[in-house]
Amino acid sequence: MIRPAALLALLLLAGCWKPEPPPAVEARYRVGEPYRLGNLWFYPREDFSLIETGLAGVAAGAHAGRRTPNGEIHDPAALMAAHRTLQLPSVVTVTNLENGRSLAVRVNDRGPADPGRVIELSRRAADLLGIAANRPTQVRVAVEGNLSRSLASTLPVPEGSRPAIEAAPTVAVERETLAPIAGTRQAERVREGRGPVVQAAAAGPGRTAPPLVLPERVTQGPAMPGMLYVQGSSFTSRAAAERQARRLGGARVESFGPARLPEYRVRLGPFRLPAEADRALDGALRAGVSEARIIVD
C-alpha cells in the first residue's frame, strides 16, 4: 500500500499535480449600505474632495489574504488603508502632521472600529509615514480626486452598490445644520499642507487602469502638529449650539463662515494628548452626540 506522502511525491515527479493558485483579485467599485460599527451608524458615500484631520491608527492582527469589502486581497505589506465612509477603492494622501511625511495609499477596507481614529493604515504604510502601532498620530487625509475617479471608472460596479436616495419634500419647519458624520467632508477650515501630487488622467480608450499597488513614494514636508479637539455638531442657530454645549459640559460655541450667514460649532478642548481627546470623545458619544469626532487644529 502506497503511503499518502509517497503518492504525493510520485504525483509531483510525474507533473500530474499542481498547487492551487492564489485567489484572483476581484476588485469591484463599491459604496455600500449604511452599517453599524459598535454603537455607531455610518453612511458610506461618494466623496472625491474629502479633506479631514484626526488621529491615525495601524491595523493590528489583520492577516494577509482576507477579502476586503470590495473584493480585494488585504496585504499588510502594501499601501492600504481602511475608512468608514469613503467609496472603495479610493486613493488618499495621508500626511503625518507630526513629522511632515506624506504618502498616497489605497483605501479598500472599512474601519477603523475605534471612533477616535479617522483612518486605519496597513503596517507598511504606517512604517513609511513614521507612525507607530501603539501611538495614535495626528494626520491629514485628502482624497486624490482624479485618481479615485479613474479607479471608479475602470472597475465593475456590483448591482445596487450605488445607493439611490430620493430627496424628501421640504416643508416650512425650523432646520439646523448638523456636523458631517465621521468620514464626510468637513465644512470648517482644515490645516493647510500639500501632500504629494498624484496625477491620473481620466480613464478612456487607450489608457491603462490605475495600478492595484501604489508606489512607495514618500514626500517630506514641514511638520505641522496642532492641538486636538472634540467637535460636536454644527448649527445655524446659536441657541441650538449652546444647548448642545451645555449638554456636553465644558464645551464652547464658535462661529464660522460668512458674517451675514454664520454657523456655530460646538467644541471641547484643546487637548495635548490623544488619551485626553479619547476620553472627551467617549463622553460626547455617551451624551448622544453621535457625530462627535476628534480633529486637529
Structure notes:
By secondary structure, this protein is an alpha+beta fold. The chain contains 5 helices and 13 strands. The protein has a 6-stranded mixed beta barrel. It has a 4-stranded antiparallel β-sheet with strand order 11-12-10-13. Strands 1-2 form a two-stranded antiparallel ribbon. The longest helix has 13 residues, at 274-286. It is globular, with a radius of gyration of 22 Å. It starts with a helix and ends with a strand.
Short account of what is shown:
With 297 residues, the protein is α+β, with helices and mostly antiparallel strands. The protein has helices at residues 4-14, 123-129, 145-154, 238-248, 274-286; strands at residues 35-37, 40-42, 51-58, 80-82, 90-96, 101-109, 119-121, 137-143, 219-220, 228-235, 252-256, 263-271, 293-296. The strands form 3 sheets. Strands 3-7-4-6-5-8 form a 6-stranded mixed beta barrel. Strands 11-12-10-13 form a 4-stranded antiparallel beta sheet. Strands 1-2 form a two-stranded antiparallel ribbon.
